[in-house]
Design goal:
UDP-n-acetylglucosamine1-carboxyvinyl-transferase, Chain; 4-stranded mixed β-sheet; 25 strands; globular; alpha/beta
């Protein structure tokens, strides 16, 4: 079952969503959307680039980087490890230039308390980085993050020579990490890939700074493979030597040579997961959404969400420098495996009642371990709105229907809030509990939504 329903005012620290009422009623659009939103930089790329830049020799400049609760958590954890990150002025979409003074892999040893807040990527990426140097550190996070699985990564770190001491439930945060006298030196390790690809990505990101490099064997199905491909692409952009052996029917093996990273100027593309809300809005609302900077060369697998919309009847144009979705006035039902684009499954679930036939999503059983159980929570909130929805072990089915007015619980999950906001824009009657949870990855979300009406209806936070 999903967690208990959110109650009470939001307490998020990140700026961007102003002081909206809680719950926040989403007013429907008066006309089909015509959107060219200014989106934040990719959270996934920003946090990967921050790690690479932190371990590089020299000064890197990250342009178009996202500043949100998740990326602030990463920057602050890196700061505790001796990395200087200078953040420029945030623009309206939440992007900035970040200057990172690289350490060449020589991190501050011991003593730091690393607070990953609610950020899964930060917790899974910073743990292998933290044991590169000697000494002892505590890695912790907010209560919802403490419930998320970490066991496979912690076991892998133990196999590489780190000592991991649980300070709470085994396999979860908080943990005490001991890098020994000289830190983890690398070698060979096996890791499962069917719980979270972030475990593999975290090990890979730290690997160039290991004296002996790293050879990782994936011993199960790898979920969200495009995110691992993204990790490798960002690493290579910073000069890492990474090779993949991916035989048909055999285990994926990735080898990372020692030698570190090289500092560079690195441009971060807009966030494809954030774009999904506007693409869905256009497809289900007979409108148009065009996102510049997201095209055929994108590193982000979540852009494939537009292919799902195309299979449902939307018109999609993917060019080198942009992607555009146009609604045709009708969405068909679909059965789709979203294992590689699981972050967009709530987006599809939220617009699914507006299709002409059932929408079935499968292949995403692992998202039950995200910020919330994104299968049970999507179904629970659709049912709260009077929609016929059901869950399976690895997905859900949603049948056509008109939502009844209700307050949608978000379970501290930014994607629940933004996905169901799309449904509210199309139908009305949807109020979002804890609207400030969007600050985790998209601080300017509500302003971006209001800009579709031609004006911003509330003042952004200073």
């Amino acid at each position: 079952m999903p967690p208990a329903r959110d109650e009470g005012p939001a307490t998020r620290g990140a700026a961007g969503s102003g002081r909206l009422p809680d719950p926040f009623e989403v007013e429907p659009l008066a006309a089909p959307p015509d959107a060219e939103p200014r989106l934040p930089g990719s959270k996934s790329i920003t946090n990967r680039a921050l790690v690479c830049a932190a371990l590089a020799e020299g000064t890197s400049v990250l342009s178009g980087a996202l500043v949100s609760d998740d990326t602030e958590a990463m920057s602050e954890c890196l700061g505790q490890l001796g990395v200087a990150c200078r953040v420029g002025e945030r623009d309206g979409s939440g992007t900035v230039q970040i200057v990172v003074e690289g350490t060449g892999g020589s991190l501050r040893s011991g003593g730091a308390v690393l607070d990953a807040r609610l950020s899964g990527t930060t917790s899974r990426f910073i743990a292998p980085v933290a044991v590169l140097a000697g000494g002892t550190r505590v890695l912790d996070g907010a209560e919802p993050l403490r419930r998320r699985p970490m066991a496979d990564l912690l076991v892998a770190l133990g196999e590489l020579g780190a000592e991991v001491v649980p300070l709470g439930d085994p396999g979860c945060l908080p943990v005490e990490l001991h890098g020994g006298t000289t830190g983890v030196q690398g070698g060979e390790v096996s890791v499962r890939g069917d719980v979270s690809s972030q475990f593999l990505s975290g090990l890979l990101l730290a690997a160039p700074a290991m004296r002996d490099g790293l050879r990782v064997r994936v011993v199960s199905e790898l979920v969200s493979r495009p995110y691992v491909d993204m990790t490798v692409a960002v690493m290579r952009s910073f000069g890492a030597d990474v090779s993949l052996d991916d035989p048909a029917g055999g285990p994926l093996v990735i080898e990372v040579a020692p030698g570190g990273y090289r500092a560079r100027e690195f441009a971060i593309e807009p966030d494809a997961s954030a774009a999904s809300y506007f693409f869905a809005l256009a497809a289900a609302g007979a409108g148009r959404a065009r996102v510049e900077g997201l095209g055929t060369s994108s590193l982000q697998g979540d852009l494939a969400f537009v292919d799902v919309l195309a299979s449902m009847g939307a018109s999609v144009e993917r060019a080198t420098g942009h992607t555009e979705v146009r609604g045709t006035g009708q969405l068909h039902g679909v059965e789709v495996d979203m294992v590689d684009i699981s972050d967009t499954a709530p987006t599809l679930g939220a617009i699914a009642p507006l299709a002409t036939g059932p929408v079935t999503v499968r292949g995403i059983g692992f998202v039950r371990g995200k910020e919330t159980d994104r299968i049970a929570s999507v179904v629970t909130e659709l049912e709260r709105l009077g929609i016929d929805a059901s869950e399976s072990a690895d997905g859900f089915t949603v049948r056509p229907g008109r939502p009844s007015p209700a307050v949608v619980s978000t379970y501290h999950d930014h994607r629940m809030a933004m996905s169901f906001a799309v449904l509210g824009l199309l139908t009305g009657g949807v109020s979002i509990a804890d609207p400030h949870c969007v600050d985790k990855t998209f601080p300017g979300f509500w302003d971006a939504i209001e800009s579709l009406r031609g004006e911003v209806s509330h003042d952004p936070a200073p």
